[in-house]
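name: query_chain
kind: protein
chains: 1
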Amino acid sequence: MFEIGARKNIPNDPAPSRWSYKLLRLMLSPFLRRLVFYGVPVFLLMVVTAINLYDENRRDQLRAFYDEIYLSVVERPEFMVNLMSITGASDEVMQDIREVVSVDFPISSFSLDLDHMQKEISGLDPVKHAELRISSGGVLEVKVIERIPAYLWRREAGLEVLDETGAYVKNVGSRLDYPRLPLIAGEGADLQILQVEKLLKAAQPLENRLRGLVFVGERRWDVVLDRGQVLMLPEEGAASALERIIVMDDAEELLARNIRVVDFRIRNRPTLHLKEGAMEELKEIKLMQLRPSE
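structure:
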């Protein structure tokens, strides 16, 4: 009896059991704590969501709910674009822009892809640069910088207008559409704009007689003047050869004579081609000079 009573009065050991101690130590791990407090709820939420989305009717309801919320936001009046304003473009280019940017107004600004629209407008041949922005009041502003016509390029396909860099602008039906623009011809002439600028600068004294520049064989240039005269220039140093011809003309009135071609393809051996009948005329002049005066 005494022993039984003694056992009842023994106090409980406050130390944790072995398994309890291991569990407490394990819970001190940061990874396990995050897994228990965050991972398990997320996993349960994913399971519940998957069960709900498995039902097609529930998916349709969620989709309709999302669309309703989305439309209630994007179709607010402050996000609506009501019209498009185009500045810096001619009437023809403005019409092309409206065809490329086929937008039915009013439309939400969230539905407009400004980058794509900018690329489409910049892709138009007459457009050099385009800038788009949505201003206050629901206006889509399109600012355009057009290519400035600088040259007429005659080729087999017809007449093309080029800008100062040689980029294509548009086709024209007649030389009279741009009578003041210098005329160039020949395949590859559009890629030689730097040479064209040098030749036009050198040919300024002949500006009133200049009819055009012809790129021959994609190698060299011919300068075409009025009265059917042609100045054939070398492959290298074409501008300096043209300046030399002009100096000779100033000194001896070379181009005022009955000459059809000034061949400067070989710089050290220039050749003159007379017009048809010029030799007979020259012989008659010599004979008249040899006849004794009455």
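note: Residues 9 and 137 are 88 Å apart (CA to CA).
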